[in-house]
Design a protein that fits this description.
Elements: H1 6-10, E1 22-29, E2 39-47, E3 53-60, H2 70-73, H3 77-80, H4 86-97, E4 101-104, H5 107-120, E5 129-132, H6 133-140, H7 149-155, H8 166-186, E6 193-195, E7 231-234, H9 242-251, E8 255-257, E9 266-268, H10 277-285, E10 289-290, H11 292-299, E11 323-324, H12 342-345, E12 359-363, H13 367-380, E13 383-385, E14 394-397, H14 407-412, E15 417-418, H15 420-429, E16 446-447, E17 451-454, E18 461-468, E19 477-484, E20 496-497, E21 503-504, E22 509-515, E23 518-524, E24 534-541, H16 547-550, E25 553-559, E26 562-569, E27 577-586, E28 589-599, H17 603-609
Parallel strand pairs: 1-4, 4-5, 7-8, 7-9, 9-10, 12-13, 12-14, 14-15, 16-26
Antiparallel strand pairs: 1-2, 2-3, 5-6, 11-17, 17-28, 18-23, 18-25, 19-20, 19-24, 21-22, 22-23, 24-27, 25-26, 27-28
Helix pairs in contact: 6-8, 13-15
Amino acid sequence: MQVIDTLSHASGSRTLPKGHRWVVVDVETSGLRAYAHRVLSVAALVLREDGSVEREYSTLVDPGCDPGPVHVHRLTRERLAGAPRFEQIAGELAEVLDGGTIVAHNAAFDYGFLDAEFRRAGTEIPARQRLCTLALSRRLELDVPDHKLSTLAAHWQVQQLLEHDAYDDARVLSEVFVRSALLAESLQLPLPVVDCLSRRPAYPDSVPRVPCEWKNPGRLSLDVGLVQGMKVVVTGQTVTPRVPLAGRMADAGLDVMNSVSRQTSVVVCNDPGVQTGKIRKAMAEGIPVVTEQQLEEMLTRVNPGEPKMRPVVEVAAPPAEPVIEPPPQPETAEPLADVPSLPERMLTGQKPKLWQGRRVLLLGGTHLDAVLMRSRLVQLGARPSLNLTAAVTDVLMLEGGDSDRRMPRITARELPVLTMTDISAAVEKGVVPPHMRIESRISAPALARGEVIDLPARKTSWTVNVAWRAETDDFDVDVVAFLLAEDEKVDSDDDFVFYNNPSAEDGAVELSIDGSSEQSVRFDLAALPDECGRVAIAAAIDGERAFGELGAVSVSVDGEDGTAATFVLDAGTTERTMVLTEIYRRAGKWRLRAVGQGYDDDLGGLVALYGVDVEEGN
């Protein structure tokens, strides 16, 4: 099997793409939430056209609060003592960033923290674009087990001296970025630059979620009073500012929420006559409403609750082969174009996965040709690739593909070219082309639509990475997630994750917009509430355009140690929204399904299907 040497392909003249003032940035922070935590140190390196450093800026920052995970960043209160506050460095840092395109590893994180700090300082961050090297690494499909900065540093042979030091991380990242950008240029892959202003989260007037250690005892009874674990929602004006009030309730063992749901125990409102969306929903659900004064009185004697006890789940070995389970079919669903069922696509008399580990790029052909060929590639164990990347091992040439603008690069890389005849011979007779008769590297299973696998029980943190062709910049695609209860509906509007509400359950599920054609949903299964048995991840195209125009969508499900599964969904035609995948509980296990269910409705229609009330107010 041919392996592309990314180092040699990225070597030679070092000239970064023009049209950008590249500024490599890294921050260390007191926590993970930009609206609640603070920057502890920041480093920014302005790069010249040849990738060398033209200007650098680095400083510790006094956050005025607990520094958080000292075991990670080593920034103790003592080390930070005497450092300037962010408002004191905002002017000089703004000069460094002004007009620049921020380059960072998980750029949404770094940009989000700097954006929040500049706002607290009474100004705005002067950078309007960002590039995520995590997204760039995934777009290139580098041959690495994961995309951590330390892994990429080793891949590109960049020495890392002090991990989680803002300056050293920025130095390492600048070299990783230069090498990655040069490789992208050699592949004619556009860089994943994001317009920050169009993708800036608009955080609502909400309170930070604090994990509650107590089971929800149900609705409030005025005769009994508050019980630890009760879910409390505040709406309208309060005498005590909402955040400190929420902190007192959390300290007392109450679970303070931002939206009313059927699980809500009590709503706090000083003037129920204001008829906010939360009050209307509370009345419809029969949820008690109390005043702030009543709450204050009850807070003096909160009754003890029942601690949460999570069941121990046995570790089960993954199945030898993925299985098929039909996706749920809501009455309003318009099914996608028919694709062959799994039994029709199974190899007869041959072992499946003949082409395991191959990455195949399709060129030319009609939409239906591409759908059929990708289906057969998955059947053979290969992974269809949407772009010419560092991982592509073969090119499948369909009618008209020889005129593709990438052909000179494909020829230069001496990539083997396959035809539909090769695919038919492999499917029907188990033929393996001579150039593939070398043991391929182990790769994650490539699922067909409807296939299901068990996620390893010992792993709880996963990322669903969604991508489409890098050249489709004119499409406005939103990836969203729904935390669903037993009735397949969200329990509250907080359980709908999208770009204006990028985090649910205090980070248990979190959206990250990593690139121009890459978005990710990160989730921690252990942190999901007991009432959430399913997470559905979907994509919506803004405007009147449809998935038939966008083309194939690639999904990979990655853990800290590698990829659990990948799949490509490309049967869309007129659909404007599509449920991509579901992660759900069954028999004590978490399972993953490749769904690919499309709807002609827009995003508003999809969220209504899942029970989201888009009109609810504060």
